[in-house]
Amino acid sequence: MATLSSAGISGSGLDETMIAKLVALQRQSLVPLQQRASVLDSKISTFGQIKSLMSTLQDAATSLADADTWRLANATSSNAAVSVSVTDSNALPGASVITVEKLARSQSVATGVMGANTQFGAGKLTITMGRWNETGTQFSNPGTPLEIDIAAGAKLEDVVQAINSKGAGVVASVLKDAQGERLVLRSRETGADAGFTVAASGDASLSPLAFNGAATTGSVAQYAQNAKATVNGIQVESTTNEFKQTVPGLSITVNQETTAPVTLTVSSDTEGMKKKIQAFMDAYNALNDTLANSTKYDAESKVAGVLQGDSTTVGLSNSLRSVVSGTVDGAADTLKRLSDMGIQIQKGGKMAFGTTASDKTKLEAALKDPTALSKMFSATGVDGQPNTQGLAARMKDFTRKALEFEGTFDTKSKSLQELKKSNGKSQDRVNDQADALEKRLRAQYASLDAKMGGYSSLSAYMNQQVAQWNR
């Protein structure tokens, strides 16, 4: 009689690899779900990239939609004695003439020469800030006096430390040379009101440190003064060497007195405007290319873009191009559309500065007319008449609506995330079903294994008995 035997589990002869094969077969339905999940991840990633590019375009459009962009200016000076810079959009093209009579300076006082080991008795120094006339004979506009205690036995270095530690309106230092030492006091600020007096009380040894007008024998005094200049025939003053907004939109710094008038020239910053236009075009082209690549079908490689056929993406692409391809009603006759300034919409929707001589001429002419450019790009328009709105203002509104909460990107992102979530649940169901099948099969195989084990024992016993009978 044949025996029941084969390689298997528990020595019963059952082949357990069949369980793994059946479970693997059950999990085959995961493959299309996982492929779908990968596609969804690619779509989510691509939409994130498109959203980022849309945000960049919004920033560039916002810049062009700002009327101040078209008032960008450069300022130059005919002489290094006067420097000038543009501070805001109030600077208007034109020329101003300036002469510099005086530079702003602080008050500086140096005492007479003293011995290196000079010591002072106890007393006080009282410093009062105010204004001296040019000859040092009249002091006005006095501030609150500041008293500084000087200890007995103090040297010049100790006096300096005592003054500087009080945070007074003056800075003290010691000037040393072959003759000896001097106490030097200088006002912290420049301007006529940065003058000061120094009164000494207490021990008589402090009196050489006092200053109350004209310099004494051996001492030196420089009086504080305002910068004085004449701008376009008008005399002006400043406590510093900088004149802010004396000419609207300009900061003028005087570096030295002049013997002849200096001309300050303000002109439109055409290069700055061109860079902002280029930034807008670059942002637009980057977004346009990404939208195009994600929706196209490559016939040669037979590979479709990750968002091919997606209505939201196609709609964005079409809307984006329609914004920049329109005209601006109410703008200057010579500047109503991009082509009027030499910018061409190429195949595929990209923008580029034209390369023909005509396009280059148009661009240069447009940059020389900032007012017309402002109308074409930044005009706010008339309610109910969208064609009167500037191109950049339109793009600013378009990108804002797409990016805002519950806008195009928010809605699409939620939709894709819901699909990803649903896909994840479907994968979980397949895995749960496979796990349940494996559990059920193992239970069935365990039961069958036990029975087969019993049959094997019975078979061995019967074979033994037959062998005995045959004897």
Number of DSSP strands? Answer: 20
pLDDT < 50 runs, ≥5 residues: 1-11
Portion of residues in helices?
A: 40-55%
Strand content: 15-25%
Major beta sheet, strand line-up = 1-16-3-12-13
Largest sheet: 5 strands, antiparallel
Q: Given the structure, what is the number of helices?
A: 9
SS-based structural class? alpha+beta
Indicate the overall shape: elongated
Q: How much is the average pLDDT?
A: 88
Describe it.
Among the domains are: 74 residues, no CATH class; 115 residues, Immunoglobulin-like. Helix 1 runs antiparallel to helix 9, helix 2 packs antiparallel against helix 8 and helix 2 runs antiparallel to helix 9. The N terminus is likely disordered. Strand 5 and strand 6 form a beta hairpin. It contains 9 helices and 20 strands. It has a 5-stranded antiparallel β-sheet with strand order 1-16-3-12-13, with no helix packed on it. A 4-stranded antiparallel β-sheet has the order 8-9-4-11, covered by helices on one side. With 471 residues, the protein is α+β, with helices and mostly antiparallel strands. 41% of the residues lie in helices and 21% in strands.
Detail the topology: elements first, then pairings.
Elements: H1 17-26, H2 30-65, E1 73-77, E2 82-86, E3 94-102, E4 108-110, E5 123-132, E6 139-140, E7 146-150, H3 156-165, E8 170-177, E9 180-187, E10 195-202, E11 220-222, E12 227-231, E13 234-238, E14 242-244, E15 250-254, E16 262-268, H4 270-295, E17 297-298, E18 303-304, H5 311-325, E19 343-345, E20 351-353, H6 357-367, H7 370-378, H8 391-403, H9 408-470
Antiparallel strand pairs: 1-16, 2-15, 3-12, 3-16, 4-9, 4-11, 5-6, 5-7, 5-10, 8-9, 12-13, 14-15, 17-18, 19-20
